[in-house]
Amino acid sequence: MRGGRRGSGPWAVAAWTLAITLPLAFLALFFLWPVVSLIATGFVADGRLDLSGIPEVFGSARTWHVIGQTLAQASLATVLSVALGVPAAFVLYRLDFPGRTVLQGLMTIPFVLPTVVVGVAFSAVLGPGGPLAALGLERSLTAVIVALAFFNVTVVARTVGTFWARLDESASHAAQVMGASPVRAWLTVTLPALGPALASAAALVFLFCSTSFGIVLILGGREFANVETEIYRMTVQFLDLRGAAVLSLAQFALVAAVLVVSARLRSAGERAVQLLPDGPSLRRPTLRDVPVLAVFAATIVLLHAAPILTLAARSLRDSSGEWSVANYVALVQPPQEFPLSGSVLSAIWLSCRIAFVAALIAMVLGILIALVLSRRPASATARRGQSLFDALVMLPLGVSAVTLGFGLLLTMHRPLGIGLDLRTSAALIPIAQALVALPLVVRILLPVLRGIDPYLRFAATTLGAAPLVVLRTIDLPLLGRSAGLALGFAFAASLGEFGATSFLVRPGEQTLPVAVAELISHQAPGAYGAGLAGAVVLGMVTAGAMLIAERLRIDRSALGSRASGSWAGSRAEW
């Protein structure tokens, strides 16, 4: 009784109310208001509702071409990512070999590399002077699809791999004993069992691909534009807010549909995992695994390593093709004609400071959101509210970063009556970047909290533990391992954010992604080479942040032991 009263007292109610209202207020002020305001601007003329833009935009052949390109790019990139990601999942999560854990960590780097870096890397391979320039693929659908797969093979490998690692394959072994070949057993038994994880991964990859901005802008051009880059072109080049608003609504409808499908598939996958025991131990590779190992090796070498190594090599050549560090010198001492407002060192320092603030904001809000979503309310109404809360948190993943950035510019002139024009300060950049990183943080932290046995919390509360004590001794210690990884992801995602930042960056203060994008598109002699060098520097900083995050992660078993010891000591005191 005492535990029940303490667990439901006014302090507990106030704490959970704060955990819900603080993220909601942040999302309402800095996400919903700017996005809705921008869309409303496109549908209001002379103070009246004007929907004439809908038939005008959808009556244009250009609109349907862009929508078709978006669906084609996302669909083909999803198929390629799944085809290459499943072998990677098998190798990394079912086989045992030296360096497997290191490879698992390295496979996270492609996902967090800035889109500007990857776009420039593929441009260095396929563009003029590149090793594959003769193929003429620089501005092509193929280039866009392969570059999108560069990011998303990792998503498939991790999503399917973590599911596969816990899959009981006794049914597959039984099928082989009864005469089925390994391939047939995999197709008829294992593949259907992996269905929920495959479908969930495919839905997420489709979402990421359909809202890609930097890759399509650099490699696709106007001919292979998607909805995201078309919104950018309408707002920046033509100030066509009505057309941009209509396209934003179309993109929002697509994203909402994908999020609903993804949420249902993820829920089905979670239920399936809970019904299965821990998977069998890893096994050593055999001769029959050679084809899968070959596909995995080709993915690592050709898809991931080759573009990055080509980018690094070309950044070390001057305009005459000689080996030189002139491009890096130009970043430190930029010529007058370069579109840089200072050296690359100042851009790196500014980018890191902004990304650090954004990561802290995303972590604070993400921990609060994950704590709320990890609870299992008894009321059906509360469960529906929890689902709506989850959906709202995920929305920034699929809403155009261009729409968000431009919306912030429209609404942040003395918001809520405060005497500060946020548009003239750098404060909006970390806010926008935190919105981009927040869903990733939640998705990393939430499975850990949901995996905690609810009876452990119940027992603690029954014995008299206050809610804050339960959080301190059970939830937060077990969250430590994933918190380091989430912080690394948030920092890396914020560091490389380009879409919204390109709107919000102030004159004279460029972040590194913006500086790289301006250099590679500038006509000044040596600017392209300096852009390649800047992309290398940005990639190294991002990869370094992820590797540090991996090193700082606390071993989960140690955390479990510490949590148990802390809980035992607290229990003795009670």
From TrEMBL:
The UniProt record lists the ABC transmembrane type-1 domain at 67-260, 348-549
Could you tell me which SUPFAM superfamilies the record lists for this protein? MetI-like (SSF161098)
Key words, A-Z: Cell inner membrane, Cell membrane, Membrane, Transmembrane, Transmembrane helix, Transport
Q: Which Gene3D superfamilies match?
A: MetI-like
* Biological processes annotated in GO: transmembrane transport
Span-the-membrane segments of this chain are 12-33, 71-93, 105-129, 141-165, 241-261, 290-313, 354-373, 393-412, 424-449, 455-471, 483-505, 525-549
Q: Name one GO cellular component term.
A: plasma membrane
**Location of this chain's protein in the cell:** Cell inner membrane
Q: Which CDD domains match?
A: TM_PBP2
Predominant location: membrane
Q: How does it sit in the membrane?
A: Multi-pass membrane protein
Protein's recorded name: Thiamine transport system permease protein
- Organism per entry: Leucobacter luti
